[in-house]
């Protein structure tokens, strides 16, 4: 029976235990979260003035990598992703402005942060982290620019990906053959994570998820009593958001995108059959 259980969750992090799903589906979700869930990112920068020591391209690149808060509607994002992958360019675009100057009376350099970006559109665009340093201005230097943010997906550029790492691992399994038993009490101490115990004549995990599959216990067992494997039907998935979208929204959007693609595939097959 398929089951999903939340192990740990906060604003930018989600750890799930997924049981009963084929590993291919889990991996498809992972890849979709990385490459196909749309977010807002700065894609074009128009410089009015730049007397800093950094080239325009350097500053524009840094602005492009800033995570921006994105509309957290999974239905909207899933449909948008399909449109983008079909070659359609999203009409939505938002403008931001930055004007920074280090006055002569300051006497020292001035650090410009992501919070200095101001939204110009009717719908306010918010930078996820306000304290990201962008560049420094020397005394008397000025930077004035207008930045344009649009929707995109990770397939187009990594700056559009809503996640940093998304990973999953199978549940470790310890297979112990009592007929080949040897000095198991010493064997327990070989584990670098100290997640083994020998009790009632059986070697077992204290916490299977602590096992890192290093096989130190298996290598130390000269009689072959211990074997380390994994159960592919039980998976722990870790999702860490850049802050553009909540992890649950990213997961739901990825699932909807896969469903939309399957619906398109079924539709094409039905049309083909009628020909």
From TrEMBL:
Pfam family, one: RNA_pol_L
Cellular component GO terms held in the UniProt record: cytoplasm; DNA-directed RNA polymerase complex
Cofactor: [3Fe-4S] cluster
Gene Ontology molecular function: 3 iron, 4 sulfur cluster binding; DNA binding; DNA-directed RNA polymerase activity; metal ion binding; protein dimerization activity
Catalytic activity: RNA(n) + a ribonucleoside 5'-triphosphate = RNA(n+1) + diphosphate
The organism's place on the tree of life at top rank: Archaea
Keywords, comma-separated and alphabetical: 3Fe-4S, Cytoplasm, DNA-directed RNA polymerase, Iron, Iron-sulfur, Metal-binding, Nucleotidyltransferase, Transcription, Transferase
One of the protein's GO biological processes: DNA-templated transcription
Record's cofactor remark: Binds 1 [3Fe-4S] cluster.
Record localization: Cytoplasm
The protein's Enzyme Commission number: 2.7.7.6
InterPro entries with a match to the protein in the record: 4Fe4S_Fe-S-bd (IPR017896), DNA-dir_RNA_pol_30-40kDasu_CS (IPR001514), DNA-dir_RNA_pol_insert (IPR011262), DNA-dir_RNA_pol_RpoA/D/Rpb3 (IPR011263), RBP11-like (IPR036603), RNAP_Rpo3/Rpb3/RPAC1 (IPR022842), RNApol_insert_sf (IPR036643), Rpo3/RPB3_RNA_Pol_subunit (IPR050518)
Residues bound to [3Fe-4S] cluster: 211, 214, 217
UniProt record similarity statement: Belongs to the archaeal Rpo3/eukaryotic RPB3 RNA polymerase subunit family.
Entry function: DNA-dependent RNA polymerase (RNAP) catalyzes the transcription of DNA into RNA using the four ribonucleoside triphosphates as substrates.
HAMAP family per the UniProt record, alphabetical: RNApol_arch_Rpo3
Subunit structure: Part of the RNA polymerase complex.
Record protein name field: DNA-directed RNA polymerase subunit Rpo3
Organism of this sequence: Candidatus Marsarchaeota G1 archaeon OSP_B
Gene: rpo3
């Amino acid at each position: 029976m398929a089951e999903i259980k939340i192990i740990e969750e906060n604003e930018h992090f989600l750890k799930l235990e997924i049981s009963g799903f084929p590993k291919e589906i889990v991996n498809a979700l992972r890849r979709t979260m990385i490459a196909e869930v749309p977010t807002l990112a700065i894609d074009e920068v128009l410089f009015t003035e730049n007397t800093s020591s950094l080239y325009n391209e350097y500053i524009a690149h840094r602005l492009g990598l800033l995570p921006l808060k994105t509309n957290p509607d999974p239905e909207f994002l899933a449909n948008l992703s399909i449109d983008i992958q079909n070659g359609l360019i999203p009409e939505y675009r938002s403008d931001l402005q930055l004007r920074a100057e280090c006055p002569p009376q300051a006497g020292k350099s001035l650090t410009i942060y992501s919070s200095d970006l101001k939204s110009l559109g009717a719908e306010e665009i918010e930078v996820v982290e306000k304290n990201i340093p962008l560049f420094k201005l020397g005394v008397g230097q000025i930077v004035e620019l207008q930045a344009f943010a649009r929707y995109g997906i990770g397939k187009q550029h990594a700056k559009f990906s809503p996640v940093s790492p998304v990973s999953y691992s199978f549940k470790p399994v310890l297979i112990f053959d009592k007929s080949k038993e040897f000095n198991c009490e010493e064997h327990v101490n070989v584990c670098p994570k100290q997640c083994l115990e020998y009790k009632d004549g059986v070697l077992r995990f204290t916490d299977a998820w602590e096992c890192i599959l290093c096989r130190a216990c298996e290598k130390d067992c000269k009689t072959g009593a211990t074997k380390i494997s994994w159960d592919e039907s039980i998976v722990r998935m870790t999702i860490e958001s850049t802050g553009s979208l909540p992890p649950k929204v990213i997961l739901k959007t990825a699932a909807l995108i896969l469903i939309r693609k399957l619906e398109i595939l079924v539709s094409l097959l039905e049309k083909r059959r009628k020909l």
